[in-house]
Amino acid sequence: MNKLIIFFTFLFLNLNYISCKKDIIQAPCNINKIFNTTWQFIAFDSSGIVTDIDNMDTIFLSFKINNKLEGTSQGLCGNHYNGVYRIDGNKVFFDSLTSTEMACPRSKYWEYYYKLQFVNYFQMSDSQLSLYYNRRIQRLLFKKLMN
Question: Fewer CB within 10 Å, N side or C side of the chain?
Fold first, then answer.
């Protein structure tokens, strides 16, 4: 009987460990590459349906080392935005986002800015940044600009 109790205890602990392990998020290897780098927004990705933005609609994002972010919109729009961020592993949180308020009717700036407020997770490679929102179903795609 004791062997049976030990077996089920061992089984329960292992199943619990396996179910929790999938929630562990590893910090990106090159997290420092996100800082003081300019990223150009290139597309919305909604469940695999990628919508590129117009080449004339250039939107930029920079993460500063002092936990501040700033960005600009050029071409079809002329807005500037900024705020603060916090990174915890692959989780990212934006707060106090503010923007100038040019209307920009043909630009995707306001759609981008609205979605940026809901970002809570990111992935990064040497040349690409993905900011996820809506339970990681949707993302904002960026390419790294050479500084």
Answer: N
In-domain check, residue 82: yes
Quick one: which H or E segment has residue 145?
Answer: none
Cut 0.85: pTM above it: no
Going by C-beta distance under 8 Å and a sequence separation of 6 or more, which residues neighbour residue 147? 36, 37, 38
Please write the tens of the pLDDT for every residue from 94-123.
999 999 999 999 999 999 999 999 999 999
Residue range(s) defining the domain that contains residue 84:
26-144
Report the number of distinct structural domains present in the chain.
1
**Look-up: residue for tokens 């949180």?**
93
